[in-house]
Amino acid sequence: MDDGLDGIGAVDAGERLASALDTSGAEYAARRAAQLERIAALEREQAKAVAGGGPKYTDRHRARGRLLPRERIELLVDPDSPFLELSPLAAWGTEYPVGASAVTGIGVVSGVECVICANDPTVRGGASNPWTLRKLLRADEIALANRLPLISLVESGGADLAGQKEVFIPGGRLFRDLTRLSAAGIPTVALVFGTATAGGAYVPGLSDHVVMVDERARVFLGGPPLVAMATGERADEEALGGAGMHARTSGLADHLAADEYDALRIGRRIVASLNHRKAGPGPSRPAREPRYDPEELLGLIPEDLKVPFDPREVIARIADGSAFAEFKPLYGPSLVTGWAHLHGYPVGILANAQGVLFSDEARKAAQFIQLANRSATPLLFLQNTTGYMVGTRYEQEGIIKHGAMMINAVANSTVPHITLVMGASYGAGNYGMCGRAYDPRFLFSWPGARSAVMGPAQLAGVLSIVGRQAAAARGRPYDEEADAAMRAAVEAQVEAESDAFFLSGRLYDDGVIDPRDTRTVLGMALSAVHGAPVEGAQGFGVFRM
Amino acid sequence: MTIDRLLVANRGEIARRVLRSAAALGVQTVAVYADPDAGAPHVAEADRAVRLPGGAPADTYLRSDALVAAARASGADAVHPGYGFLSESAAFARAVAEAGLTWVGPPPEAIAAMADKRAAKKAMRDAGVPVLPELDPAAVTEADFPLLVKAAAGGGGRGMRAVAEPAALPAAVGSARREAESAFGDGSVFCEPLLRPARHVEVQVLADAHGTVWTLGERECSAQRRHQKVVEESPSPAVGPALRERLCEAAVRAARAIGYVGAGTVEFLLGGDPADPGLYFLEVNTRLQVEHPVTEARYRLDLVAWQLRIAEGARLPAEPPRPHGHAVEARLYAEDPAAGWRPAAGPLHRFEVPGADAGFAVAPADSGTATLRVDAGVVSGSVVPTHYDPMLAKVVAWAPDRPTALRRLAAALAGARVHGPATNRDVLVRLLRHPVMRAGGVDTGFLEGPELAGLSAPLADGETVRLAALAAALAAADRERAAAGALGTLPGGWRNVVSAPQCRAFDGPTGRIEVRYRSTRDGTAADGYGEVRPAGVVRTGADEHSVVLECAGVRQTFAVAHHASPGGGTEVWVDTASGAVALRPLPRLPEPEPARDPGSLLAPMPGSVARVLVSVGEAVAAGQPLLVLEAMKMEHPVAAPAAGRVRELYAGPGAQVGAGAVLAVLDAPAADGPAGFEEGER
């Protein structure tokens, strides 16, 4: 038996999906070529983040015998374990470098899944800009929601002073989060490799476990120049905040590491001794590979978001054994709902099929989400929606009421949600399908995905119609030339601002991923969400019937 | 007379060998074992076993009284001495007989007659067997050089010295005398001309108590290192029919001269003109030889079974069986060619010779098919003790012709999986494949000559070591994934943002080797390995992987085994078609070396020095208090962590010291020399 479960009496999670994808056709090849181009663009943008401050600064950093942030992470995590970097495109499309001078992610340290945050000291000395702050705060949020220990690899010159107005006030949350994590019983570990001044000094100050690298770590509220300004004291750096001083005298350091490698070794030992256990259940059955190759996802995704595709083809390439137990397949067919397993974890899936959500789809979703909460099953939202249906007939049928039921269910559901934006995410469909504002535990996008209040052409068209009506009301002629220019400009702007890279740069997702990695990324995310207890909602808002 | 219960007064492979033949004849068996051998296979394989308390041979396998007592206690009615230990002790043979037990060996008188080499030579000369002239060390002249100094009571090459010129003679005689005195309790030595080139050829004899003496052909034993046989074969490529007739005739004369009964070997030296060499009696080994399987393979008989039958009084048929084909044996030793051939010991994690057709018995042969026999004293999991001869096993190949036999044996050794102490395996493989060996041209000087260095090089070259390290890294990664406590079902080493590859480092025969690899959508890729493509990693056992690497289109399989190291950590053994490679994984994040002097003693807490109890230059024992620190109204003695000598004292009485301050530095005492080991006879 090919799935290893038949014959031992195990009940399959559902029917094995049969793929109708023609992998030999021209359409498949064209879609695949377009996707590969998008993936190449994604890799180019990620490479910018990996390059950090560029050869000049990375070489100088290495010449000082220091490791780059990703090198530190590679040595910290278990050999050969997977590592999911979060928000790698943070600050994309802003005035700050891609990656936002920090690296965050989820990795396995001494057998424990942890959130790891590392400053990139090769980018402007590792100073925090507004996007760094948002990236680090998002990592804290993930650690707290999923009860994952937080490891900070500290080497930062503090706030980017030019951008301090955007950093200083909200930045206090970083310290608040650290101590709240600790209070919630989620361990925090700080490995200090270099300077941690002023605000940065509170990262070790507020972490449960602190390691400092001898003769490298410098932790003080005020460095020698500031001390000289404030009190006139001529302070020695080592005496003021050296690792040896903190390990022997102030007690701020629990461990004095001989070098960076030693600090990482001690860090791994600390995590091994945390006795940290995940509060959620483990996988409910052995993981099985899908029966269809995830590689084929590339030829499945249409180049044009207006062309719908069957999400069952996606599920067949990410779910264990390609098995899917569909719920209400004949009712509200524009939204596919059903149960599957992913890396052994049970999951309820809601996936848009024809883009539009009608009343039936909304009612089906609200019922399905309640079922998932009764059985404490995590939910996966596969977004490709153009929003709730508009028009007289639909308004009269109560589309607002029914959309509200769905949003009520999503908003008050307490099982973990994971959202993947596969294609379009427009209008209130973004909300009903658990967009960023609905706090899914993780939200990832495929390259080419778009999120906006509506499609660029529709938005421009709406503006044009409204303008035309206004002109008519005032009895003025409508300037068609200006209208065309306005439409083109608005379309271009919305196009750019609804793009996955742009939104990822603004931390509206946790990363743009290669579609072929979907199963792996969701597997890591699902494992992470089970760090916290999985419990269904006790009640929802009043459903307007 | 019938033997019903046989005690085997030996250990290792020869004990297993004798036990096997006895059991096949329906004879009950008794093993003896010294303490280090309590878990040895020969103990498990015997019907009964008697402990010989202690470890050193002198306390155990060389204790005649203890062995006779063991035979009595276990109800044995016969004793087989094997080879080495007491096998050539006339006193032991007598003690066995006096205890009313059957001695499986020649009469004590025959043993005694051959024990003193000088007396043996005289007896042989009298019987008409050609011998080398004996030279008086006090009377030799320049013309007699080169010559050989020999211990009269010698054996196994001990007490033997080659001397090139007169000036070196007194020292050689002195050292040979001392060695003989300590090894045999008899320091008398004599001299003989040293034949160069020469060959060591011996004749197997088998005689019953009724006057029949068989000769079972000759064995060529010229491949020797330090008088230690390494490879033996039969027939000798240097012996033609005429010479064979002369050898066998001389051997029969020798056996008859001393009234020999049982299995024995008459050793000769062939020297002078290779076309018509001179033939000189060397000695008679009054016991079974290590290399007896070579003869068994050619004559398809069981010499141990015949020993037992002859001891029971059986008659040999008038004529011996006819020999077939060619047989060659190699001795696998636990010794390190790279460390002056020092005997090696320790856990033998794995010992497998794939393709063996038989163990401790003649392999059944169809004419035309090569066969392989393995007589091993060890099994996977054995511990090679330091007290005894370091021979692990004998591997014997038989084939219809000599080239096939040599090739089969080399292949068997090359394919053997020997994970543990260093061995001479690679030397054996290189020797068996050497053109001089293939041409039958190896004489007794060959392994002392310039070829030795080349023969001693490991089979695995630098490239093989590099590939083995890659295979080891991939196997280790698979192990890591299989044991992962979290995210174990996800792809190993997966990254959504690619930066650095995975890195594993090993300490190997060529020093530190770093392997970098990354998982890609098309499988694992290795950085810096050019045309090499990992083509599969399959777990084949608990700690065992088969790794396939495709190198420029050629697939090679690497068998990777992980073993727990006795000193902690892991040993990785990689067996390849191009040699075996042992690797030690290096930690990614090693514990830092303390930057201070290794012998530094640090203050455990801040305080003041109350008293200093030692002075600079003083020798101190482990645990000896060096000074007393006073802190918080308590006195804390600071003691030496190990024995040594005080090099520096940094704090005098009354000095205030901080925690971690260096108080004193100790020098370690000179390292002890390597522990000696004692050998049995060979």
UniProtKB/TrEMBL annotation, chain A:
Example GO molecular function: transferase activity
Record carries keyword NAD: no
Coiled-coil annotated spans: none
UniProt entry tagged with the keyword Transferase: yes
Assigned keywords, A-Z: Transferase
Xref: InterPro entries: AcCoA_carboxyl_beta, ClpP/crotonase-like_dom_sf, COA_CT_C, COA_CT_N, MCCB/AccD1-like
Domain CoA carboxyltransferase N-terminal: start-end pairs: 35-286
One Pfam family named in its UniProt record: Carboxyl_trans
Domain (CoA carboxyltransferase C-terminal): residue spans on this chain: 286-536
PANTHER family from the UniProt entry: ACETYL, PROPIONYL, PYRUVATE, AND GLUTACONYL CARBOXYLASE-RELATED, METHYLCROTONOYL-COA CARBOXYLASE
Protein name: Acetyl-CoA carboxylase carboxyltransferase component
Organism: Allonocardiopsis opalescens
Upper classification of the organism: Bacteria, Bacillati, Actinomycetota, Actinomycetes, Streptosporangiales
From TrEMBL, chain B:
Listed cofactors: biotin
GO MF, one example: metal ion binding
Domain ATP-grasp: start-end pairs: 98-312
Top-level division of the source organism's lineage: Bacteria
Segments forming domain Biotin carboxylation: 2-452
Pfam families: Biotin_carb_C, Biotin_carb_N, Biotin_lipoyl, BT_MCC_alpha, CPSase_L_D2
Keywords from the UniProt entry: ATP-binding, Biotin, Ligase, Nucleotide-binding
Database matches in InterPro entries: ATP-grasp (IPR011761), BC-like_N (IPR005481), Biotin_BS (IPR001882), Biotin_carboxylase_complex (IPR050856), Biotin_carboxylation_dom (IPR011764), Biotin_COase_C (IPR005482), Biotin_lipoyl (IPR000089), CPAse_ATP-bd (IPR005479)
All residue ranges annotated as the Lipoyl-binding domain in the record: 592-667
Record-linked PANTHER family: BIOTIN CARBOXYLASE (PTHR18866:SF126), CARBOXYLASE:PYRUVATE/ACETYL-COA/PROPIONYL-COA CARBOXYLASE (PTHR18866)
Protein name according to UniProt: Propionyl-CoA carboxylase alpha chain
Organism the protein comes from: Allonocardiopsis opalescens
